[in-house]
User: Fold these one by one.
Assistant:
Number 1:
Amino acid sequence: MNSRAIYFDYNATTPVDRAVLEEMRPYQEEIWGNPSSVHQIGRRARACLDEARDRVSKVLIAKPSEVVFTSGGTESNNLAIFGTARLLRGKGRHLITSPVEHHAVLHCFDYLEKKEGFRVTRLPVDRDGMVDPESVKTAITPETILVSVMAANNETGMLQPVREIGNTCRERGVLFHTDAAQWFGKQSVPDIGFFNADLVSICAHKFHGPKGAGALYIRSPLLPDPILFGGGHENERRAGTENLAATIGLARAMEMFVANPVFAQDSLREWTERLAKAAEAIPGVEVRGSRHHRLANTIAFTVENADSIALMASLDLEGVCASSGSACSAGSLEPSHVLSAMGVPRDLANSFVRFSLGRGTTADEITAVENLLPRIVGVLRAAR
Ligand SMILES: Cc1ncc(COP(=O)(O)O)c(C=O)c1O
C-alpha cells in the first residue's frame, strides 16, 4: 500500500489477516489434492475440507450439513435466491425484497421477474433506509415463497430489523434469506439462529479472510436447487472442485472474528462520529442513513454542489481511499440506488461519499481527513 494512503474503504474489502494467510499457505503448497479424488492425496484434502466445514459450523452453532462453501457473497446470494425460488415455484410465485439490497441480490430478483415469471414486491424504506417489519406482514400473500432483506447495508451501514422480519416469515411459513456479508466481523453473531433466517450469506474478504471465499448457511431440511451444475460437490448443492485454501482461510477468519468482531466498536464509532461532525460542519453536507442504528465503522454523506466522481478523485489525490456507493468507478453517472430508495434527489444521490473504517485506521488519519474535507469541498465548489 502507498505509505500515504488512508484506507477508508473496509466495506469494499479488507487485507487478509496474517494468521489466516499462514494457515492457508500449506493448502497451496503441500495439501493440494482434489477432495473428490479417491486416492490418498485426495483423501487427505477431503479430510481437511470436512474439518473446515466442522469448524465453520461450530462458529455458527449449526450442523456441518447446513454449510455450503461458495466463492463469496455474490454466489451465496444467487444460490439462496435462484435456488429457493426455482425449488418452490410450484407453491407460489411471489417474492419480497427491499430496494436497498446489494446488486448481487437486486439483480437476481430483477431476472426472476423479467425472465422466469415471478412477481416481486420491493418494500418501501424510510429516509434512513430502514425496512418496516410491519410492511413485511402486509406484503406476504399465500403466494409468497421467499423474503430477502440484508442484515447491514454496505453503503450507509444501516442495520435492518432482520430478527423481527425473520420471525414474521417463520410465523407465516415463508422462507427468509439475509445477505449478512457486511454484518459478519462487524456486529457480533452469537449463533446463526440469531438472524431467524433460513438462508444466510457470508463473505470472507469483508473480515480479513481471503477473496473468492464465502458460505451459504441453509437451515435443514431445506435443499435449494443448484445454480452450478457439474459434479456432485457440496452434497449436490454446488458443483466445482472446492477451493480448499480459501475455505481454510474462511474457517480461520470466522473463528477469529465472528463471535468477537474485528471491527472494534468503541474507537470506530467515536471516529465515524467525528468524521460525521466534520462533514456536517460544511454547509450543504448531510449525513445519510441512521446516525445510531448503523455499523460503527461506516459513515456516509452527500455534498450539495459537488459530484461523487470529483470528490473521489480529489480524495484519492490526497491519498484517501473512499467509495461513492454509485457505479461511478465504472464510468457510469447512475446515482446510488440506495440513496435514491431513501428519497434523496438524483443530483444529491450523485454526490455521495462513504467512509468505512477498520482495524488499520488511526486517530491521526481521522484528524487528517477532518482537516482535508472542508478544503476539498471548497475547491470543488469554487471550480464549478
Ligand atoms: C452486502 C453485500 N452483499 C454482497 C456482496 C458481494 O460480495 P462479493 O463481491 O465478494 O461476491 C457485497 C460486497 O460488496 C456486499 O457488501
Note: The chain has two domains: 6-14+262-382, 18-257.
Number 2:
Amino acid sequence: MSLFEHIKKHWLQPFFFLGKNPLSLIGGAAASAAAFVLIGFWAVNILGHAGSKNPYVGLVLFLFLPAIFLLGLIVIPIGIAIQRRKLVDTGSLPSIYPDIDFNEPLFRHALNFVVVATFINFVIIGIASYRGVSYMDSPSFCGTACHVPMRPQWVAYQQSPHSHVDCVECHVGSGFENYINAKMAGTRQLVGVTFDTYPRPIRAPLSELRPARATCEECHNPTRFLGDRLLVKTEFSDDEKNDMTKTILVLHLGGVDSLSHLSGIHGHHLNHIEYVATDNTFQKIIAVYAPGPNGAETEYVDSTWKGPVKGVRRVMDCMDCHTMAAHSFQTPRDALNEAMTSGIPSVALPFVHKEGLVLLKAKYSSQAEAGVKIKDGLETYYRTQYPAVWSSQSAQVEQAAQALIKIYDRNVFPDMHVTWGTYPDNIGHTNYPGCFRCHDGNHTSKGGQMITNDCSACHNLLDVDDPNPKILSELGFE
Ligand code: HEC
Ligand code: HEC
Ligand code: HEC
Ligand code: HEC
Ligand code: HEC
C-alpha cells in the first residue's frame, strides 16, 4: 500500500465519513471563515495604505480571529469523537469507511453546508472585525477604552493644539516591523489593563514615537520658521494683593532662510545633533554630538559627569523640545497664573494666589478627595482669616475653589501616580531643565568649546517682573 493510499484509508476516509456531523461542519466553517478574514486583513495591511496603524488592531489580528480559527479547529475532532462514540454505541461503525466520493449526495450536501456556512461566517466575522478595527482607530478609543492608564494623556491631549491629530499618527512607527511590533505592544498593553499589571505612571519613551519627519513635519514645514516671537508671561505674586507682573521676551525662533542659513532656536537644531542620556525620560544628558567644521563631529561632555559616557543615544528632533505638543501638562504656578489672568480666581480675594498654590500642591489620595479638600480648605481659610471677605464674597470664593479643582483634575491623577512634574516640559529652563540639559554652561568639548549659555542667543529679555511694562504699550498691546 502506498503512503497516499495509507493516509487516505486510515485518515481521510474516516475523517470525511465521521466529519459529517453538525458540530464538525460548523467548526470547519468557522475556522475557514476566520482564516479568510485574517488573510484579507494581512493582504490589505501589507499591500495597501488602507491598513490601520492602530496598535489595538492586534486585538483582532492576534486574539479574536485566531481564537475563532482555533476554536473551529478544536471543535472538528470533538464532533468526530462524539459521532464515533454514537456509531460505536449503536453498533453501526463500519469496519471499512466508504470511499470519498464527490458524487455521493450526502457528501455533497455536507460540502454545500460548509461552503454556505463559511460564507455566512465570513460576512459576520468580517463585519465584526472591520467595525472593531474602525472603532479602535479613533482617538477616543485610545484615550478612554484604556480608561485608567491613559486618562492623564487623554485629558491633556484634549487641551492641546493637536487634539485633532490621531494618537496613532505620532505613536505608531511606520514600516512593517513597527506595524507588527505595535500590534504586539497593543495586545500586551490590553493584557496589562485586563490584569492590572501596567506601570504607573505610564511612559512612552521618545524612542518609541514615530520620527518627527513622519509626524510633525507632515504638517509643520521646518524650513518655514523664520524670525522672532514675542512671549509675554503674566504672573501673580504671593502677597495679599496678588500683584500682577509681566515678563516680556523676544524668542529668537529662527529657522532656515532661502540661502539655507540655519539660525536661532529652530535652525541650530536642524543640523544632525545626537545625544546620550542616562535616564528613560531623557532629562540627564551627559554627552552631545554636533556636526563640526569639515564634516567632523564635536563631542560636548557634561563636565560634572564623572562616570563613563554610556546610555541611550538618540538623534534630536522636534519632540526633544516639544514634549508637550500633544499632552500639555502644566505646572501648578503656570496653571494658576493662566487662570487668574482670565479672571478666576479673582485677584480681589486676598492671598488667593498663595493659598491656591498650597492647596494645589498638597497631596491627595484621589481626584475626588482633592475636590472635597480644596473646596473645604479655601472656604475655611476665608471663613477664619477673612470673615468680612467670606461674608461679602463667598460666591467668588466658591468660583475660585472650582477653578482650582479644575486645574487639579486636568493635571494630577493620583490613581496613575501622575502628579506635578511627572511629565517634564522641555521648552524653556525655568520649570524643568529643558534647554539647560545641554545649554547649562557645563557641556564642553575637548577643544574648549561650550554649548552656549548666553541668554541673548535664545532671547532678549525686554522686561522682567514689571507691574507696568512700558514696552507693551509702546508696541501697541492692550
Ligand atoms: C502630535 C503628536 C502626538 C499625538 C497626536 C499624541 N501623542 Fe501621546 N505623546 C506624544 C509625545 C511627544 C509624548 C512625550 C514622550 C516623552 O515625553 O518622552 C507622548 C506621550 C504619551 C504617553 C506616555 C506619557 C509620556 O510622556 O511618556 C501616552 C500614554 C500617550 N502619549 C498617549 C496618547 C494618546 C492616548 C493619544 C491620543 C488620544 C496621543 N498620545 C496622541 C505625542 C503625541
Ligand atoms: C496633522 C497635522 C499636525 C501634526 C502631525 C502636528 N501638528 Fe503641530 N499644529 C498643527 C496645527 C493645525 C496647529 C495650530 C493649532 C492651533 O493653533 O489651534 C499646530 C500647532 C502647533 C504648535 C503651536 C502651539 C501653540 O500653542 O502655539 C506647536 C509648537 C506644534 N504644533 C508642534 C508640533 C510638533 C512638535 C508636532 C510633532 C510631535 C506636531 N506639531 C504635529 C498641526 C499638526
Ligand atoms: C531646541 C528646541 C526645539 C526644537 C528641536 C524644535 N522646536 Fe519648535 N519651538 C521651540 C521653542 C522654544 C518655541 C517657542 C516657545 C513657545 O512657543 O513657548 C517653538 C515654537 C514652535 C512652533 C510655534 C511657532 C509660532 O510661530 O508660534 C511650532 C509650530 C514649532 N515650534 C514646531 C516645531 C517643529 C515642527 C519642530 C521639528 C522640526 C520643532 N519645532 C523643533 C523649540 C524647539
Ligand atoms: C540635546 C542637547 C540640546 C538641547 C536639549 C538644546 N540644545 Fe540648543 N544647541 C545644542 C547644540 C549642540 C548647539 C550647537 C549647534 C551647532 O553648533 O550647530 C545648540 C545651539 C543652539 C542655539 C544657537 C546658539 C548660537 O551659537 O547662536 C540656540 C539659540 C539654541 N541652541 C537654543 C536652544 C533652546 C531654546 C533649547 C530648548 C528649547 C535648546 N537649544 C535645547 C544642543 C541642545
Ligand atoms: C538655550 C536657550 C536659552 C538660554 C541660553 C537662556 N534661555 Fe531663558 N528661556 C529660553 C526659552 C526657550 C524660554 C521660553 C520658555 C517658554 O516658552 O515658556 C525662556 C524663558 C525665560 C524667562 C521667562 C521665564 C518664565 O517665567 O517662564 C526668563 C526670565 C529667562 N528665560 C531668563 C534667562 C536668563 C536670565 C538667561 C541667561 C542666564 C537665559 N534665560 C538663558 C531659552 C533660553
Note: The chain has a mean pLDDT of 85.
